[in-house]
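Subject: Polyamine ABC transporter substrate-binding protein

B.,
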Amino acid sequence: MPTRRSFLKIIELLAIGQLVSGCNKSDADLTISLLKGSVPPQSLKLFNQYFASNTSFDFQSRGQLIELFSLLEYWQSKQKKHINNSWPKVSILGSQKPYISDLLTLGDSWLTQAIQKDLIQPIAIDNWHNWHKLPSYWQNLVIRDQSGNLNRDGFIWGAPYRWGTTLIAYRIDKLNWDIKDWDDLWNPKLQNRISLIDQPREVIGFTLKKLGKSYNTKNIRGIPQLKSELRALDKQIKYYNSQYYLQPLLMGEAWASVGWSNDIIPILARNRNIKAIVPASGTSLWSDVWVVPKKNNISELSDTAQKWIDFCWQPEMADLISLFTNASSPMINNLDTEQLSPEIVSNPLLYLQTKTFDKCDFIKPLSKQDQKDYIELWSKIKSVK
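Prediction pasted inline below.
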């Protein structure tokens, strides 16, 4: 149940919605293309209060990260005047005339492709007062070379503003025992009762975790037991689907599911028969980051956009993001618990203890050969089913 504090913030949303909806694109001080639900609407009012300003925002939301990545590709094609003839069939643009946003949401796993395709540009951090307060693992996630590889001597290509995990969700009305770690998914009682996201780095990754290794393990051909573990897991799987993996769990056809925390957390409040856990041995981490779309003849980011990025790391904004977006702020563990809503601190899916977080892995770029090995192994496992 929401607390009074949460209820008051929800009521405030009704009053703030007008700040977003009435902006004219050409007149807005800051244009942002973002992942739907990744920014609380009341943050706009807080931004203006914080800077004593009257900034107008134009927020255009998309339902999936792939749509935002496609938007970057489209903008580039328009600038180069090489328009794909099939593009008008893509529905994300609607009927409005396309424009290039100042900022855009991108997942950290998309950064390498975006850099290699020259879709985004590096960001100068002259006006980021809170950048140095970010833990080093968040900084290192977005510092890369011009090939998109992690490189501490590279450029800053994005600003992490929220993050989440890969969770195990399961039905407590179907199981008489608690799932605690990845190895529980191999329990014979779950045969043909699991639904999974259809992602090789995730599934092979948590199988590697079961074996005491990292999600980013290289040369997986040198791990002889990996294939047999994956074949045994495959017998447990009822569905592979990255978009609809939770429906079988909700209907009771699957008794356990593996997926992303921002998908799973919302269903827990609506269904008391479902529980979710962060696996004890650690899990994968994902992050949504602000990136700057590549614009011809424009290299500097506006002062308003710089302020917005830095503002997302303020304690008040960190609290809002963690409370209302089914994800956590990267600043969450830097803050005193008194600076955060009780609902955040008491939620182990949002507020990870340091000992748990330290066991988790960001899914990092691999060499072309390692990527090929992961994909080939995944294809072999699924082809048998």
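The domain at 166-284+364-384 is CATH 3.40.190.10 (D-Maltodextrin-Binding Protein; domain 2).

T.
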